[in-house]
Design brief:
heterodimer, A: about 300 residues, Rossmann fold, 2 domains, 6-stranded mixed beta sheet, 3-stranded antiparallel beta sheet, 11 strands, about 45% helix, disordered N terminus, B: mainly alpha, Serine Threonine Protein Phosphatase 5, Tetratricopeptide repeat, Neutral Protease, domain 2
Chain lengths: ~300, ~750
């Protein structure tokens, strides 16, 4: 299922329904590749973005296994080697996030990311990814013409985000700039659970990209797409203290109470349209107060 | 052109190159046959038909044209069908006629005239030009080009019309046009002279008489003898009133213009142009219901020119606007941005009204209606068919329409400055009962922009510098011409600049009171020479001489060093790219004050700030940007960068003031409101912080929970606990696990 570009009711509902989804256990692998820039301006921009992602991911996920290729290192051979190593190391419970920055091309049949030396096609990339056992995969292809890679890359348990709707959107993209910003800006964590999920980062970057073209009064030459909501369960990085595991029976009881209250709030929100506004507000306030008190007890 | 959203479409009357090949003389409209059944079969001549129409015998004229339409000659058939308003069929016949007579100049000119009548200026021009290629000295073709140019207030109209009179001194229509153009140029003496010349050629020249009548009416001489003369020749010649309507509208006397269009329609309800104009003027004055009715009537009758179609579409789009009324304002904002813009625009509208009521010593008779369009094409519909730029805002009596800040790229438009400009028109128009020359009301409006705040208004631009250098400024007595019929592309902009400077000069030398006295002079219908003589004691020639000396002294350094400044600025840009920062700073210091008004992208201030920052000297970078901002620089990026420097250097109050300035330029930036809200909250400016956080929410932020929470914090600090509770609940509704919001809720609920 595709997430439509404007953050309308559909996406909000999806976010809401997925709020309860637990973030994934297992090891997390992050690979970022910045391809060939062609011009010094792009070389520098792509490399900087890749390095920034590297820094942010490492800071937010100290245990993650992070590999970043840019500049002359970002060859097809090196890329294949990194993915082959992950294929050996990862397990089904693990997650993999692959982020591609740079120029892409699409000839109507196959997509390729431009790399120093031979390019890598979407078909070749899909083959490499298929060999990786990590059961939760996310590909964020931020290159031009990246929409052309989607059909080849997508499969169950692999979410694909592309900066463009199709392979025919060939202009250099700006989506990567806002993807990086999403990893840096706490505002991207819209559910305030101190973790930025892939879905949250996508929504943030997609909106900022649209705003960019609207503000500059330019015709949008990229329309980011997110396929498959599995992305909401993939944590990109943590931006605050994570909840300590419940150790004592009291804490366990409080956690159970919190979960119960969260479910009640979800139910109430689901019934909002059918509930008189004053009644809704009253009930919401009671539940939120109770939730706040429970959380305060947990945080003691 | 705006895309159709409601089903109003432009006419299907095609261009000649896209015509389908219908056989001549085979298919005729039913009306032609019906008319033929009741007519004697006497041969009719084209001139007979025209004479009947000229004398207002419209039914007889139609019969006459019907006969022509049924005749054997395709050209006369075309004329006949055109006379019957069967434009598509006439078009086919013109095409066939030209096939039969491929070298005919007359057919081309007449076909072009029909295209002109049916809103296709380009096709018309093409035919007139073809005619002139065949016969270089054809007066009728030259007149055709003049008429086409007149539609867009081009100065070429005067050139071609004059040329036509030279080629054919007996062409009354060319004289009529010259009279019309002269009156558009606010030159009634010349208009009357040309009209007299037309009448000397043709004593029954109705349009020449209409010019005379219009001059009388514009001078408040309500009983013009010319009307009786017109009606004796043609008792249903509503065109005379319609002509007057055009001149009243052009002189911003919209209400009277409406009256004349109504009179035109009383005489002849089938004057569709008059009906469409009536609808447009009603729309301009906010009378939307009748405006729609008149426009739809014209549209249904096939009068589908761009003004009519786009006006109807614009009326349809009003359902997407919210209207907010107060005792003295009516504000129409597009729903999507209404919540964000209303607090800023409504407050500024009220502040401007209060200020001007004191300055102009005048209480407005009713509320001011302000319409703000985020889509520039919608706004452009409001100015269609009007001379000049109409680029940012336009005033119709007490109705003002303007672009929204979202309608233009950030930093290219100062909405508050435009608002004050337009509001000045509202006051000057009311104070003079709409009897004010264009140059003066524009000059006052430009003057008021910088009077409101020195960094508002337009800066001295390169085009104005060139005009001063080349002595291209117009004498004050002819300055209106620069607005209505510019003789070179930049002349409108330069005329705004000149008019504004004239008002500044008068205010500086004689005091602001003299400007108010000139307003009174114009209200009494004094001409510009009289207004200047009676109030300033100078002839216009003396005034021009003194004003130019003052202006030249004021701009001397910039004008003298402009070429050097341009050359050095280019070098600075190259040096900055080459990271030669010391060179950039040396060059910048040398040339910055040659042209301090230049604050466009790549200004000396910006380049020097970049160089200072690259060298790690942020305090100096900040100083350059402070100068940039004080002079009127408007780039949101640079202004926000300045605020960052000020914050970093321990000047949060200055940072807040810098960011607040941006609210008057581009308030559609959530980041601006968040930063300003934070600064004001820290400075305990709680109303300011609350307004800014509300703006963040109105801008539909990416992080609604965070935005509600921040607003809740400011409200709590302002002791508005109930409002704070509502906001924190909204934050938690979006993100129930949001711990800071949970803590705030617990605190408020204690």
């Amino acid at each position: 299922m595709a997430v439509a570009p404007p953050l309308g009711g559909g996406v909000r509902i999806a976010l809401f329904l997925l709020l309860g989804a637990a973030l994934l256990p297992g090891a997390s692998f992050y690979v970022t590749v910045a391809g060939l820039g062609g011009e010094p301006e792009y070389e520098q921009r792509f490399a900087t973005q890749a390095q920034e992602i590297d820094k942010l991911i490492r800071a937010g996920n100290p245990d993650a296994k992070v590999q970043t290729l840019f500049g002359p290192q970002a060859t097809k051979a090196q890329f294949e080697s990194v993915l082959a190593a992950i294929a050996k190391e990862s397990k089904p419970a693990d997650s993999l996030v692959l982020m591609l920055i740079g120029h892409g091309s699409f000839d109507g049949v196959d997509y390729k990311i431009n790399l120093p030396g031979p390019d890598l096609s979407a078909v070749e990339l899909a083959t490499l990814l298929d060999r990786i056992p990590a059961g939760h995969q996310l590909v964020v292809n931020m290159t031009s013409a990246s929409g052309g890679s989607r059909a080849v890359l997508e499969k169950p348990n692999r979410a694909v985000i592309t900066a463009t709707k199709s392979g025919s959107e060939k202009n250099a993209t700006i989506f990567a700039r806002y993807w990086v910003e999403a990893l840096r800006d706490p505002a991207a964590d819209t559910d305030k659970n101190e973790t930025v999920s892939a879905l949250e980062a996508f929504v943030y970057a997609e909106q900022k990209t649209a705003q960019f073209y609207e503000t500059q009064k330019r015709l949008a030459t990229e329309h980011p797409i997110l396929e498959d909501r599995v992305a909401s369960r993939i944590a990109l990085l943590h931006i605050g203290a994570t909840q300590a595991a419940a150790g004592t029976p009291e804490k366990k009881a409080l956690l159970a109470r919190r979960e119960e209250l969260e479910q009640q709030i979800d139910t109430l929100k689901y019934e909002k349209a059918a509930t008189p506004p004053e009644e809704y507000k009253k009930q919401l306030q009671i539940l939120l107060l109770e939730l706040a008190k429970t959380q305060a007890e947990l945080d003691k | 052109m705006k895309n159709s959203v409601t089903g109003y479409s432009f006419p299907d009357f095609p261009g000649r190159s896209r015509l389908t090949g219908r056989k001549s003389g085979i298919e005729y409209p039913v009306t032609v046959f019906l008319l033929l059944c009741v007519l004697p079969l006497a041969a009719q001549k084209l001139d007979d038909c025209r004479t009947l129409r000229h004398h207002g015998k419209l039914a007889d004229a139609r019969s006459c044209f019907a006969h022509l339409a049924a005749g054997p000659d395709p050209y006369l058939r075309a004329e006949g069908l055109w006379g019957l308003e069967q434009y598509k069929e006439a078009n086919d016949q013109f095409r066939d006629a030209l096939k039969a007579h491929p070298k005919s100049v007359e057919i081309r000119v007449r076909w072009g005239r029909m295209f002109l009548e049916r809103f296709n200026k380009d096709e018309a021009k093409g035919l007139f030009e073809e005619a002139l290629e065949i016969k270089e000295n054809d007066a009728a073709a030259s007149l055709g080009l003049a008429l086409a140019a007149a539609e867009s207030y081009s100065s070429a109209a005067v050139h071609f019309a004059t040329h036509a009179t030279e080629l054919d001194p007996k062409m009354a229509e060319a004289r009529e046009l010259l009279a019309y153009l002269a009156l558009e140029d606010s030159n009634p003496e010349k208009a009357a002279e040309e009209a007299d010349k037309a009448l000397a050629i043709d004593a029954e020249s109705l349009d020449a008489m209409a010019i005379h009548a219009s001059i009388d009416w514009l001078n408040d001489n309500k009983q013009s003898p010319w009307l009786d003369r017109i009606l004796k020749i043609n008792p249903v010649y509503g065109e005379a009133y319609s002509t007057a309507g055009h001149f009243f509208v052009l002189n911003r006397r919209y209400r009277e213009g409406i009256t004349f269009y109504r009179k035109a329609l009383n005489l002849n309800p089938r004057l569709w142009e008059a009906r469409a104009q009536l609808g447009i003027q009603l729309m301009r004055l906010g009378e939307e219901q009748e405006a729609r009715a008149q426009l739809e009537q014209a549209y249904q009758a096939g009068y589908k020119n761009a003004e009519t179609v786009n006006s109807l579409r614009l009326l349809d789009s009003y359902k997407n606007f919210n209207t907010y009324e107060t005792s003295n304002t009516i504000l129409k904002l597009q729903k999507k941005e209404a919540d964000l813009l209303r607090p800023y625009i409504e407050a500024e509208l009220k502040r401007a009204i209060a200020t001007y009521e004191k300055k102009y010593q005048l209480k407005l008779k009713g509320p001011v209606q302000l319409e703000v369009y985020p889509d520039h094409e919608d706004f452009a519909v409001r100015t269609m068919g009007m001379p000049g730029l109409g680029a940012l805002g336009v005033t119709f009596g007490s109705v003002v329409a303007m672009d929204s800040p979202s309608g233009r790229p950030p930093g290219t438009f100062h909405w508050a400055s435009t608002l004050w400009h337009e509001l000045s028109h509202v006051f000057v128009l009311q104070a003079t009962n709409h009897r004010v020359p264009r140059w003066f009301t524009e000059g006052m409006a430009v003057y008021e922009e910088t009077a409101a705040a020195p960094d508002w208004g337009d800066r001295l631009d390169p085009e104005a510098i060139a005009a001063i250098q080349k002595k291209k400024l117009l004498p004050v007595a002819e300055l209106d011409r620069g607005f209505i019929r510019p003789s070179y592309p930049a002349q409108v902009v330069i005329s705004y600049f000149q008019a504004g400077k004239i008002c500044s000069y008068i205010a500086e030398k004689w005091g602001y009171g003299k400007l108010l006295e000139m307003i009174q002079s114009y209200a009494k219908l004094e001409s510009t020479p009289d207004a200047i003589r009676n109030n300033l004691g100078l002839s216009t020639e003396e005034f021009d001489q003194q004003f130019l000396a003052w202006l030249e002294a004021q701009t001397r350094i910039t004008v003298e060093h402009f070429a050097e400044w341009k050359k050095q600025l280019k070098e600075m840009t190259g040096d900055l790219r080459a990271k030669k920062y010391d060179d950039v700073l040396r060059e910048g210091a040398a040339i910055r004050d040659f042209y301090p008004d230049y604050v466009e992208p790549g200004s000396v201030y910006e380049l020097m700030a970049d160089a200072y920052e690259a060298k790690g000297d942020k305090p100096s970078a900040r100083k350059e940007l402070e100068k940039y901002s004080a002079v009127g620089g408007r780039s949101p990026l640079l202004i926000k960068r300045l605020a960052t420097f000020q914050e970093e250097q321990g000047e949060p109050k200055k940072a807040a003031a810098t960011l607040d300035r941006l609210n008057y330029i581009y308030p559609e930036d959530p980041d601006l409101h968040k930063r300003l809200g934070d600064l004001w909250l820290a400075q305990n400016n709680l109303p300011g912080a609350i307004r800014e956080y509300q703006a963040v929410l109105a801008a539909k932020p990416l992080d609604p929970a965070g935005a509600h929470f921040e607003l809740a914090g400011a409200l709590r600090k302002a002791n508005r606990l109930e409002d704070a509770r509502d906001q924190v609940l909204l934050a938690l509704e979006a993100a129930p696990g949001y711990k800071p919001a949970q803590r705030l809720l617990l605190e408020i609920s204690k």
